[in-house]
Amino acid sequence: MIAKAIERNVPKEKIARALDINVRSLVRKATLIEGICEEAVALLKDKMCPMAVFDVLRKMIPIRQIETAELLINANNYSVGYASAILAGTRQAQVLRSRAAQQGADRGRGGQAHRCPVRHRT
Fold first, then answer.
1. Which of 43, 51, 72, 111 has minimal CB crowding within 10 Å?
2. What are the start-end ranges of the E strands in the chain?
3. Residue 36, number of CB atoms within 10 A of its CB
4. Cβ–Cβ under 8 Å, residues 62 and 37
5. Model confidence over 29-64: pLDDT tens digits?
6. In terms of Cα–Cα distance, which of 53, 54, 49 is closest to 80?
């Protein structure tokens, strides 16, 4: 709902006022799933998951995001600490580098970014 209102060019201040939240929180909620694999989002969409968990997921490649979402669900533990522990135990090959390093690597790969490994049927 928030994303649709922003797409329709409704001023963020007006949306924030209507929801009785500050603009910064609104922007954070609107961009919550950016950089998160669709499959991981689908797994976590109906779970009470702290926003900071998505910051941790964003540091992983898509296949590891899905695995982490499954681990969170199976343990019924959606805490930031648990997600961070999973990140700490993740192989370096499955961890994204910092944005600056990632952009430099993308230039060397022809600008290709990591994609979700699961194909969607149409």
1. 111
2. none
3. 21
4. yes
5. 888 889 999 999 999 999 999 999 999 999 999 999
6. 53
